[in-house]
């Protein structure tokens, strides 16, 4: 049995659990009225975006796990990967407002595409553009066209990150594992 099936087996076990967590999160947010009643299609888009984001994060975690030699290294490596995922997503500072190096880094952050996809599905652009808050139009201007691309593009990017990280995990494991047989 090659390395690939081991990686896929971990994904097969963990992804359904992440799907349950994503579903529960959406359910709780809706039950607490933190998400509006937008219909099944919107909630389907939100769920798929969250699930693809979860898959990309899982794949990145598996890559880190494969690349390190002991748990202490993983403990040090994961924050170095997680902090940029928070800082360069666009939720703290809109990507168009970032300095050029920050904008460039944001392209490599899977969470950026999840954030922008979620905002697209929730209609943030329309809400800020025509809502009652005077803060909406300036916020919309600061984000530019961040939320205007088709959701399928965000999904493709998230899926691409997941595939890239899973393939890299397989390569790392293949190089670290001696051939048996």
Describe this structure in words.
The structure is a single chain. By secondary structure, the protein is mostly helical. The chain has one domain (3-176). The protein has helices spanning 3-31, 40-67, 71-87, 100-106, 110-121, 124-130, 136-143, 151-176. The chain starts with a helix and ends in a 5-residue tail after the last helix.
Write a compact overview of the structure shown:
It comes from Actinomadura graeca. The chain contains eight helices and no strands. With 181 residues, the chain is mainly α.
Defining traits:
181 residues, 8 helices, 74% helix, ABC2_TM
Overall geometry comes to globular
In round numbers, the mean pLDDT is 93
Per DSSP E runs of 2 or more residues, the count of β-strands stands at 0
- Give the helix/strand class: mainly alpha
Give the quaternary arrangement of the chains: single chain
The main β sheet shows up as: none
Low-confidence stretches: none
Count every helix, treating DSSP H or I runs of 4 or more residues as helices: 8
Give the terminus-to-terminus CA distance: 10 Å
Over all CA atoms, what is the radius of gyration?
Answer: 18 Å
SSE succession: HHHHHHHH
Question: How many structurally independent domains?
Answer: 1
Please estimate the helix content.
Answer: over 70%
Subcellular location: Membrane
Organism: Actinomadura graeca
Transmembrane segments: 7-26, 46-69, 76-95, 155-174
InterPro entries: ABC2_TM
């Amino acid at each position: 049995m090659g390395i690939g099936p081991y990686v896929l087996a971990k994904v097969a076990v963990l992804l359904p659990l992440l799907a349950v967590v994503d579903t529960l999160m959406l359910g709780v947010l809706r039950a607490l009225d933190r998400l509006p009643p937008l219909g099944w299609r919107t909630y389907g888009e939100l769920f798929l975006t969250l699930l693809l984001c979860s898959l990309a994060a899982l794949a990145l975690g598996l890559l880190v796990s494969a690349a390190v030699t002991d748990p202490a290294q993983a403990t040090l490596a994961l924050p170095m990967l997680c902090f940029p995922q928070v800082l360069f997503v666009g939720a703290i500072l809109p990507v168009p407002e970032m300095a050029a190096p920050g904008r460039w880094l944001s392209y490599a952050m899977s969470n950026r595409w999840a954030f922008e996809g979620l905002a697209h599905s929730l209609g943030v652009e329309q809400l800020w553009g025509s809502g009652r808050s005077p803060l909406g139009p300036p916020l919309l201007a600061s984000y530019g066209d961040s939320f205007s691309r088709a959701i399928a593009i965000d999904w493709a990017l998230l899926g691409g990150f997941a595939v890239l990280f899973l393939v890299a995990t397989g390569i790392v494991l293949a190089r670290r594992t001696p051939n048996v047989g």
